[in-house]
Every structure is written in C-alpha cells, then in structure tokens.
Amino acid sequence: MPMTTPPVVGLVLAAGASSRLGEPKQLLVDAAGIPAVVRVVRALMTAGCDDVFVVLGAESARVAAVLQGESVQLVQHAGWRAGMGSSIAEGVRAIRRQRVRSPEGDAPPGLDGVLVAPCDMPAVDAGHLRRLLSAFDGSSRVASSYRSPDGDDVVGIPAVLPRGDFAWLEALEGDRGARPLFREPGTRTVPLPYGSFDLDTPADLDRWRRSQSDFHRHATVLPQTALMDSDQACANTRRVFGPAADEK
User: Which residue ranges form the domains of the chain, and what is each CATH number?
Assistant: First the structure.
C-alpha cells in the first residue's frame, strides 16, 4: 500500500459507550459483514497511513477481538468515560511512547503527523482519507468540512494534525476535541459530503441499515474492500439520505 509523504499515523477513536445508540457502534457491521472499527482501520491503511493506533474503552475486549489479525496498535484507555478529548490525548501519548526515540520526548523525525478518525461516520472512506493526506504538507492542519443538519459550516475530524500539535493534543481533557485548533488561520479543508450523518441514535442506525440493505440488493458484485468507495455506494447514499447539504 502507498505510504504517506510526510509520514502520518492513523488514530481511531473507538472508546465511547454509544449510550444514545444502545449498542456498540464500533461493532456495527456493514453490508459485507465488516465491523465499523475494522472498516475505518482498513481505510486508514489503504489511504496511506504507515501505522494505525486504536483507542479502546467501552466493550474493549469485544472491540479488540474483532481487530485480531489487523495490523494495529491497541491503546487501552482506562479514563474513556471522560470523553473524546481524553481519548485523543491518550492516543497521542501512546503514539509518542511507541514511536519516540529522542530523550526529550518529541515526536520522532520520521513521524510528521496523526490522522484522527472516528468509526461512526459512514461517509468516511479511504478516498476521503487519502485526500486529507494528499493535502498535508507536514506542518499545516487538514480537516474535513461539511454542513451540519442546521446548515452551519463544520470543520472537524477526520483530520490530520502535525507533530507541532502533539503537546496540545496530549493536554486535552473531557469531551473537548481539536476544533479550537481548526479555527486558527492556516487550516486546510477537504469537503466531506454527508459528513453530518453519524451513527448516534437508533433512528440513525435504522437509516444506515436501510441504505446498506438497499446497496446489497442493487449491487451485482459486493465490493471486497467494504470501504464504500464505489460510485454505486455513493449513488445509494443519495437515494437514502437525499442530496448533500452543500449540494442544496
């Protein structure tokens, strides 16, 4: 698979309890039977990340079990209940522990950034992650941009953050994420159609499962990668969810 230049590692946020959904979103399977956390790990590797770290918390044993055989580094986060920010911090600390070579604790010379990705956004595929990596120059932040259901502009993850942000990310606490960084000048953005749709509630899950069922019925050959990267999958998304907000 292609390696990123500059080198970037992937960081998957898979620690949440999915309390509003009622079942672990990390383990939701797509039409090909691929769990969500496995799908995003494979997407990151296909896009060009030279390593992938997965932060575990709720249902950690079950999530770790479906990741057996995948080339990943598992990060057990005891404080996962504190929120997404704490998971990002724990993941970046693990990356430093695994990859750091200098006594000062800086990111190693061979690592220029981290691509942070959730596992509950069906619109995220290898193609989008590859576009984020292609826009990364080693120092500028590159984030996804999309419209919220209310029509507001959103800039957030998936996103590539340079090594210069690592100390800031390690200091995150609670549910505060990296959006304050994305509001700073110089952040590059890559459009993500349907980025506002995530698997957060039973209604979201029902819509997604209907889209998966429809895709399965209409596909003559099911994509082996299960990355939802094909034109047919995109067309199916439009049938179920309607036009993207930025197409209206």
Answer: 8-191 (3.90.550.10)
